[in-house]
Write a structure and sequence with these properties.
The structure is a single chain. The protein is an alpha/beta fold. It has two domains: 70 residues, no CATH class; 97 residues, Beta Barrel (Barwin-like endoglucanases). It is built from four helices and six strands. It is rod-shaped and about 120 Å long.
Length: 174
């Protein structure tokens, strides 16, 4: 049917003196079905979406591989959580309120920055501990009020230590 219409349009145009170029343009217009155009557009969109999907699958595979490597590197992590952090410091001249006053931790180390007191039922003594805002510290001490998700960070400056108290994220590992 469309072929007959095209032939008819071309003959009419030639009879009335329309050029071959005009006939070609009108013939193309007559032969172009809006539904076919829409279908071609949708097929193009589908093709682009399929390519995007393939790209996303490739990225996912790369991310999964990277994540596996990270997990293998982190396999030494034993625990993590949010803790209440307080601070302790050297014994006061008028007497010690933080232990027996000998300046040694429960593990026998001299008290110094970089050490924390922990509940050994939660974080074993001797473990390295990353504390938000402080970096990597060593679980080397205990304290009577340090129980559960609470740590006591050694801070050299007495005024700072006495005022210090906040929630921190903590990760401990071997």
């Amino acid at each position: 049917m469309r072929e007959r219409l095209t032939t008819f349009v071309v003959i009419i145009m030639l009879v009335f003196g329309v050029s071959w170029i005009g006939a070609a343009i009108i013939t193309e217009y007559v032969n172009t079905d809006p539904l076919e155009q829409k279908l071609e557009q949708q097929q193009q969109i589908l093709s682009e979406n399929q390519q995007n999907l393939n790209d996303l699958k490739d990225r996912m595979e790369t991310l999964e591989s990277d994540m596996l490597q990270i997990l293998q590197q982190l396999n030494r992590i034993l625990g993590a959580g949010e803790f209440e952090a307080t601070a302790y410091t050297h014994a006061a001249p008028e007497g010690d309120i933080n232990g027996n006053g000998d300046g040694l931790t429960a593990t026998g180390l001299k008290v110094r920055e970089g050490l924390i007191a922990v509940d050994p039922k939660v974080i074993p003594l001797g473990f390295k501990v990353w504390v938000e805002g402080f970096g990597v510290l060593l679980a080397a001490d205990v304290g009577g009020s340090i129980q559960g998700n609470r740590i006591d960070i050694f801070i050299e400056d007495r005024r700072t230590a006495e005022k210090f108290k906040k929630k921190v994220r903590v990760v401990w590992y071997v």
